[in-house]
Design a protein that fits this description.
Elements lengths: L16 H20 L12 E2 L10 E5 L5 E3 L2 E3 L1 H12 L6 E6 L5 H13 L4 E4 L2 E2 L2
Parallel strand pairs: 1-7, 2-5, 5-6
Antiparallel strand pairs: 2-3, 3-4
Helix pairs in contact: 2-3
Length: 135
């Protein structure tokens, strides 16, 4: 009787997918959390739309006007009477004196023009009214 040696099956190498899946989920969570923190100061302002416009990449002073007509510099609320004083304090040591006004669509034009006028009186060399592009 002739015996044939039994061949053992080769073990196949398998990559551990568990750690790979864990890393993918960790990256997904990281990007979801960091995307949440890229919100502008928490104010809900719907900017007016325009076809022509260029993005601002310079360091600037931003004045926000919400739907109710409240004025904010950063996250600090200002009344019209103190806006001139606050803008003078901010602009006094800057080389680039650009002020961008982000006014909600529902704000009366008169309010936005008053803020632009106060910014010019505070020493702003350039003024800009923020818009968003048409879809």
């Amino acid at each position: 009787m002739i015996f044939q040696p039994r061949r053992r099956e080769r073990l196949q190498v398998q990559a551990p997918l568990t750690s790979l899946i864990d890393m993918v989920f960790m990256l997904l969570i990281y990007f979801l959390l960091t995307a949440n923190f890229m919100v502008d100061e928490g104010l809900s302002i719907k900017l007016p739309q325009a076809k022509a416009g260029t993005p601002q990449n310079e360091r600037l002073v931003t004045v926000n006007i919400d739907r109710e007509g409240r004025i904010f510099i950063g996250s600090r609320e200002c009344v019209e009477g103190t806006l001139l004083h606050h803008l003078k304090e901010i602009l006094v040591g800057r080389r680039n004196k650009l002020v961008v006004v982000k006014a909600d669509r529902g704000v009366m034009l008169d309010k936005a023009v008053k803020v632009l006028d106060l910014a010019k009186a505070a020493g702003a060399e350039r003024l800009s009214l923020a818009t968003e592009k048409y879809p």
